Amino acid sequence: MNVSKKDAKRQAKILVVDDDPGLLRLLTIRLRSESYEVEPVSSAADALAAAVRFRPDLVITDLRMDKMDGMGLLKELQARWPSLKVIILTAHGTIPDAVRATQGGAFGFLTKPVEKQELLEHVRKALKISGMPAIDEEWRAGIVTRSSLLEEKLAQAQTAAASDARVLLTGEAGVGKKLFARAIHDASSRAGGPFQVVTVAETAERELERTLFGPDGTDGALTATHGGTVVVDDIADLPAGLQVRLVELLKDSPASGDGLPRRPRLIAVSRRDLTQLMVSGRFREDLYYRLNVVHIDLPPLARRREDIPLLVAHFLTLLAAETGSRKIYAPEAVELLATVDWPGNVHQLQAVVRQNVAMSPAEIISAEITQAAVGEGPNRLPSFDDARDEFTRNYLMQILQITGGNVSQAARLAKRNRTDFYKLLARHQLSSDEFKSRTN
To answer: How many domains is the chain partitioned into structurally?
Structure first.
């Protein structure tokens, strides 16, 4: 199935924008009859949102539209995808405007009513030099970017996917490491097999051992023979005993399988520096080098700010599908979002967009509402991991207060064994003795 998808010739994608329903339908029919994949939308705002999801090779847009006209759309598209070709549709009376549009970067213009052969000829010429890559990109469909830095990482991911090499994905919390892992899986020969994520952090050691290795050393996430992909998230938190077991497993499981059945491919994920943990003796050196066959370090959002407008448009599209109500940002609000540091990266940006959509009474989200969400300083919102750590620490303090510092009782209430509960206390720098003294 994967071979046929990759070998099949991809249809050119054309985004058509016109607020005249009749003309929009006519253009769509004509282009689809020539086997083009067409996405029709009725406004510039819808076009910008669709471009992120649809990834067109060409845009055909009317010049005269409400709110944002074809010239405004052209400028936005050029800012986000400089090499994407745009054809302007115009009435006779606005031909001078269309000429100015071509001088401003449009590929060309067509006058209404549009003749079919003239339309198709312009389309064929534009597609020959279209900037959108004419390759199968389904494997990376979930990753929204126009950053050259992130494109380099995607190229690494695609190269790694062509082999069975183990991959180590690192980067700050919220940069999309698990999304990259999924892309590697989808681009590989293992795409037909299962994709499983196992989260190490704060999972009881016995449960984690059963999940990874199976009850008797078989049929675990890493010891099954389905040939899929297993992502071990928070690999830095893997207990010492399980690090030993994983080293032994990887010794017997070469990075490149040469037959079926085969064990799943391992992709390790970490937001912490494993080399520093090796120096401190908390992570095995031999395990690190077995995991680090291909290392991809993902950049934080602050190093790819050009992606922020695209991500915002993408999140607005998702929320519109979820709520049935579409909202857009005022230009100055988008500019504000692009200046924030985003310590929580893409996850934090998505949370702010969701909050803005919920709090805005109008269709256009103002800069004032946006400012209130991000605060006066760039780091008002905590990252996801910081917020989770704060919640966990408060929970542990509360449960120790309830039990008067009795660790056995507290562990039972938290549904953790004593060993794991002590690890949680140590990780969050809490001592049960402090809570015993408060009850005396």
So the answer is: 4
SS3 sequence of 15-54: EEECCCHHHHHHHHHHHHCCCCEEEEECCHHHHHHHHHHH
Tokens of 15: 């985004």
- With respect to residue 262, please indicate whether it lies within any of the assigned structural domains: yes
Please state, in angstroms and rounded to a whole number, the distance separating the CA atoms of residues 407 and 431: 10
pLDDT profile of the chain (440 residues), mean per 10: 40 90 92 92 88 86 85 83 84 68 78 88 83 60 85 90 93 95 94 93 89 87 89 96 94 54 89 93 95 95 90 91 89 89 93 94 93 69 70 87 88 88 86 66
DSSP state of 307: G
94, 106 in Cβ contact below 8 A?
Answer: no
**What is the token pair recorded at 16?**
């058509």
Task: Please tell me the distance from the alpha carbon of residue 62 to that of residue 18, in angstroms, as a whole number.
Answer: 5
Q: How far apart are CA 321 and CA 326, in angstroms?
A: 8
For residue 265, which of 181, 153, 157 has the smallest C-alpha distance? Answer: 181
Asked if residues 200 and 208 have their Cβ atoms less than 8 Å apart, the reply is: yes
Residues 6+ apart with CB under 8 A from 125: 107, 108
- Is residue 325 domain-shared with residue 284, that is, in the same domain? no
In the listed set 324, 341, 374, which residue is the last one of a domain according to the structure? 374
Place of tokens 């989200």: 365
In angstroms, the CA 91 to CA 112 distance is 5
What is the chain's percent helix, strand, coil content, to nearest 5?
50, 10, 35
Within this chain, do residues 314 and 274 fall inside the same structural domain, yes or no?
no
- CB contact set of 172 (below 8 Å; sequence gap of 6+): 271, 298, 300, 343, 345, 383
User: 168 and 199: one domain?
Assistant: yes
Boundary (domain end) residue, out of 128, 151, 175 = 128
Helix (H) or strand (E) holding 231: strand 229-233
CB contact at 8 A, 248 and 222: no
Is the domain of 278 the same as that of 150?
A: yes
- Together in a domain, 170 and 80: no
For tokens 């690494």, the residue is 156
User: 308 lies in a domain?
Assistant: yes
- Domain enclosing residue 394, as ranges: 384-439
Q: Are strands 167-170 and 265-270 parallel, antiparallel or unpaired?
A: parallel
Q: Are 304 and 147 in contact (CB under 8 A)?
A: yes
